[in-house]
Amino acid sequence: MFSSGRNRTQAESFSKHRAGKSTSKKNRSFRDSMSTKKVEKMAQQASPASAQTSPTVGGAIITLCIGREQRLFAAHEDVLCHSPFFQSLCRDQFFQSTSKRIDLPDEEPEIFSSLLEYLYKGDYYPRLEFDKRRNSWNLEDAANGRGTAESTVYHASVNGPILKDTVIYCAAEKYGLEELKRLALRKQGLQSGIQCSTILTSARYAYANTPENDAKLRSHYLALIIRSRSTFKRSGTMQNEMENGGKLFFDLFVAMVNHMDDLAAKSPK
Questions:
Q1: Measuring CA to CA, which residue among 236, 159, 172, 150 is closest to residue 204?
Q2: Any long-range contacts for 211-214 (C-beta under 8 Å, 24+ apart)?
Q3: In this predicted model, what pLDDT tens digit does every residue of 137-189 receive, in sequence order?
Q4: Which residues pair with 244 in a beta bridge?
Q5: Would you kindly state where each structural domain of the chain is located, as residue ranges?
Q6: Can you give the pTM of this predicted structure?
Q7: Of 3.90.78.10, 3.30.710.10, 3.40.50.300, 3.30.70.120, which CATH number belongs to 36-266?
Q8: What's the whole-number mean pLDDT along residues 91-103?
């Protein structure tokens, strides 16, 4: 399952293919800030999937100022209001305001771009595709490496790469989009080629940005580390992270003990 590299970077990687940012812009219709004209065109070309997430496409166009760089996006109020978070903002703030603008300085533009893509189209790049021949789901462009290369994004809060689907899951939690949470978790399960250090950083981010009663994403990371324990055991990053401690590693200890108990119960006496 894992490559046997000649150095630590290879030894701590989940395959020979390292995940990173893609230089390709193909199929990234929401990567650049959306102007009013782009939003109007998107409304005309909305797919059937978008009808499920946004019953009506119309109403006022709202400007959104995203991130430290203050990148500007535009979206229909009706589309944004599919999210309880934005619905509350629009109701409380905009009914009495002529300037329809939302400022989200802590949001990452690339993540918000994917969130808007989901609200309009019902999915975000790389999209899920069903392989009829194999009767399985895959990520778009996975065969040529582009989908896998889009698995991580730079996040200012950790000053480094982090799994994109994890950040989207946490954003969906914040904005009240349960279907997007399920989609992001399913996509993350299809990713491969992720370094141990990125997985641990992403796991810490997941713990910091999800409530304790939302165990799905946290359990995903615990199960991933347990399944890949031989690789993590050799990881210097894992050692450093465990020395720093935190609830993640207490949960991991409990999960490992439960795993060993299950194995003991199944073994013949």
A1: 159
A2: 211/173, 214/173
A3: 888 876 665 555 578 998 988 888 999 999 999 999 999 999 999 999 999 99
A4: none
A5: 36-266
A6: 0.72
A7: 3.30.710.10
A8: 70
